[in-house]
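Students often ask why we bother encoding 3D structure as a string. The short answer is that it lets us treat folding as translation between two languages. Here is a chain of 406 residues written in the first language.
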Amino acid sequence: MAEPLQPSGTKPSLRLRVTAAAETIVRGGHPWVFAQSVRALNRPGQTGELAVIFDRKDRFLAVGLYDAESPIRVRILRAGKPRGIGPDFWEGRLAEALGRREGLFDGNTTGYRCIHGESDGWPGLVLDCYGDTRVVKLYTAAWLPWLEELAPRLARNGRLVLRLSRNIQETAAARFNVHDGQALRGQPPAGPVEFLEHGLRFEADVVRGQKTGFFLDQRENRRQVRELADRRDVLNLFSFTGGFSLYAAEGGAASVCSVDISARALAGARRNFALNMERPPVARCRHETIQADVFDWLRQPPRQRFGMVVLDPPSLAKKESERAEAVGAYARLIEGVLPRLKKDGILAAASCSAHVSADEFFNLTLEAARKSGRRFDTLRTTRHPADHPAAFAEAEYLKCLYLRFQ
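And here it is in the second language, the structure alphabet:
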């Protein structure tokens, strides 16, 4: 078997065996091996080294990145036939990911995802493009030893900014001397970077903003809102930096109200509107921002009814134990929104909680709609955009339902 290459300075490959159930799961294409599934190791593993998994008959099963601190102990890079993990492997993986996005975007959209983690064969890593700036975000410390080798490839002669999930920031600083928001290639950005989405201008705070600076996965839902917003008064709850709000304005909305708990996010929304004031529909649209906790705000008596409400909260279930509470919270949000919808009003309700399935979310939204006693029609449902593929069950997080109420 070809010996997998290691990042510079690490030991030879770690070898391990897993339970029979885990063997079956890995053969089926699942990209994770959990700690409780590891049956034996030839030595203690170090975070970031390559782990070669053998089956019960001592045949090669898979190779992946080992993470000694994570419940996901191995993130699979390749299963089936053995192959060395070196420069050619990484170049091929990157080319495959970029090739899947060929033809998806033209010059009017310069913000999109280049690598979507496990679904593109890069488990625990995403790479987003904002014009000439790329942002790599790591969700496992296992990638940290590989940064020096991979950064030039990911940057592609442009600027590359590093973002780190909170749980690995301490390890990154102490053991690898890198920090969240650091420019790995090129000059650090002086402020938010600009990019285009369907011709609209946006800014992304790639150094301190949520995720990699913007929620690129909602691009097609924003486009749907633009198509439905004409002459409506639109309420955008959990508005962040106003992506849905700006699209509604571009679609001919009479007014847009953006509600978010973050003053910084609302300031970003106002700047995004300012970037597009040369567009007549945006210039005509009245845009109001309200800083408030949306749950508290919805408990207040309605002062206005709207022709469209966009409900796109952050993930309310970051782990399975929070699922039941999240389901109840979604139901309360939808019940609080419906009294604010005019006749012929449209609700666009979205969820990004992976622990709440699409069927569960759609059903609870429809049940809340039925409890209102109002007649309604389902206009459409949407899932992941093409640059955010979901290749296994746990990757399926995004869903949106559009309802029109009488």
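Translate back mentally: The CA atoms of residues 245 and 256 lie 6 Å apart. Keep this in mind for the problem set.
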